[in-house]
Amino acid sequence: MLVIEEKYRPVAELLLPSGTCPRCVLRFCCVGSHAPYQLPYKELADELWKFLASDGDISPPSKKVRLEDSEECKDKAQIPRDVEAPQTCNLCLGILQHLCSPEFVQKILQRIRSAGYEFQDFVFSVSLPAQLLVREHSAWLQAQQEMRKQDHLLQKADIIQLKEAYKWIIHPMISEKLGVQAVSKSLFEVGVVFCHQDTDEDCHFLATVCKDCFKPAKNKQSVFTRMAVVKALDKIKDNDFCIRFPWPPSSPKTACQLVDIQCNHASVFVAGRYNKYSRTLPQTPWVIDGERKMESSVEELITEQLMAVFKVDSFNFSSSGREDVDVRTLGRGRPFAIELVNPHRVQFTKQDMKDLQEEINNSDKIKVRDLQIVSREAVAYMKEGEEEKTKCYSALIWTEKPIGKEDIEFLNDIKELKIIQKTPLRVLHRRPLASRSRIIHTMKAEYVDEHHFRLYLKTQAGTYIKEFAHGDFGRTVPNISSLLKTTADILELDVESVDVDWPPALED
Ligand SMILES: [Zn+2]
Questions:
Q1: Are 197 and 232 spatial neighbours (Cβ–Cβ below 8 Å)?
Q2: What region holds the Pus10 N-terminal eukaryotes domain (predicted)?
């Protein structure tokens, strides 16, 4: 039995004979339970016509045709579960007719299976051509009028959206076959994209009424986006609309075409800490004018394995600061996080991650520890308050004038030294010119010989250490040169620690 409320009878009487499919009629009659939509198409059509006939005073010309259709079908030995509708619906353009059949779902399933994703549930999305909105609007205005005659209201929001109804039909079929649930917040998304070229021009009249709504935008093929059409429909007066888009909308010969079935898995984030032992290894690929300057990079050495194992499309590498190509990173290493985009494999145990870490650590240039899967929010924590964090360095310094014990003691006595740094000359090509202050929290100098000493620094994150040593032509003040009143330069630099307590340390 159908569950259409009696007050919606005029809406059904208006739509069904006009060339609207039974499922769309249910939508406009605000039927909110899923089951009627899932009925086999023919069964639902028969039920609806019975419902209309029960009132006795309707005999639209097309009704006769429909009844003949159904009788013809009943004569056949077997009625297929989803008989093709006699004509394409003038509202959904076949979406709720031909494009939700078990055969169509089979296509979706094939695509999902061949894509080879790991997932525990799924979210389903539908992309519909914009002209459906115009047709929907047209039907709503007519239905609203019918309802008003009996002092009933019909808000646009009361109507069941096409996407909703479509999902009510499709979800159970996919769920059943895959054995997983449809969940709105699933990380695995299956999307179907439809178009309908024959009716593409349905929207065009809107541009003459509401020019402002349709402005060309980058990376949009057409100005008639769903968003723009919604905006224009909101603005256009009912009368104008009805004149320019007369009721009923045309019944096209063919249904919507499937453009694509897309599968995508939300990014997975992997974090850890790395040591870098080479003075000829940049953190990220070093490419100038398309030409590679260094053979590899920290980023590549870490992500190569991850990319292959998680089977991803691409990645984004980020870290808590970075070191120059000739600087080593020692101690417990530098925190990093990698966003793995569209991973096909996502289920990894702690042991899997440990094995993966060991494989990465086959390199003698870098070592990784605490490799783990983290949340997107946790990655933000790494970047949070980065400026306030401290970093420890060890540097080998050369001085022009011979140094003595008193120079070493002088440096050791300095605490919380405030310095001003203009953007260093060597990074001016990629960073804006700015002047900023940084704090050198502590300094400890160790005499090596009369022209060399080792300097241990604890500084605010973001301090340019090389410039603090040589002064960068007076762009960093004060600096080791100016403090010792001689020319000084930095020969070697190591990062000894990055004081960010993330990601959490793992047991070895
Ligand atoms: Zn329809």
A1: no
A2: 89-263
Could you say which DSSP state residue 94 is in?
A: T
How many angstroms does the Cα of residue 98 sit away from the middle of ligand 1? 10
Which residue in 43, 40, 51 sits closest to 4, CA to CA? 51
Give the residue from 392, 486, 360, 472 showing the smallest Cα distance to 424.
472
Q: Specify the CATH number of the domain 387-498.
A: 3.30.70.3190
Q: Peptide bond before 402: cis, by omega within 30 degrees of 0? A: no
CATH architecture of 267-384: 2-Layer Sandwich (3.30)
Which pair of structure tokens corresponds to residue 285?
A: 């690929």
Q: Please, what's the b/e burial string for 213-230 (b: 16 or more CB within 10 A of its CB; e: otherwise)?
A: bbeeeeeeeeebbeebbe
302 vs 55, more confident: 302
* Residue 258, beta-bridge partner list: 194
508 is catalytic: no
- Please pick, among 69, 121, 158, 324, the residue that the annotation labels catalytic: 324
227 CA distance to ligand 1 middle (Å): 22
The helix (H) or strand (E) run that includes residue 137 is helix 131-148
CB atoms within 10 A of CB 482: 13
User: Ligand 1 center to residue 166 CA distance, Å?
Assistant: 10
Q: Report yes or no: 494 and 505 within 8 Å, Cβ to Cβ.
A: no
- Residue 410 CA to ligand 1 center (angstroms) comes to 85
Give the residue-averaged pLDDT of 474-501.
95
**299 bridge partner residues:** none
Phi-psi region of 411 (alpha: psi -120 to 50; beta: other; left: phi over 0): alpha
Residues 465, 459: contact at Cβ < 8 Å? yes
pLDDT in tens, 400-425: 999 999 999 999 999 999 999 999 99
Please report where in the chains the tokens 């541009």 appear, as a residue.
Answer: 207
The 3-class secondary structure across 424-436, one letter per residue, is CHHHCCCCCCCEE
Same fold, 267-384 and 387-498: yes
How far apart CA 357 and CA 376 sit, in angstroms, is: 20
- Triad 275, 266, 317: Cα angle to 5°: 25
Contacts of 94 (CB under 8 A, 6+ apart): 85, 88, 254, 255, 256
Domain range list for the chain: 6-264, 267-384, 387-498
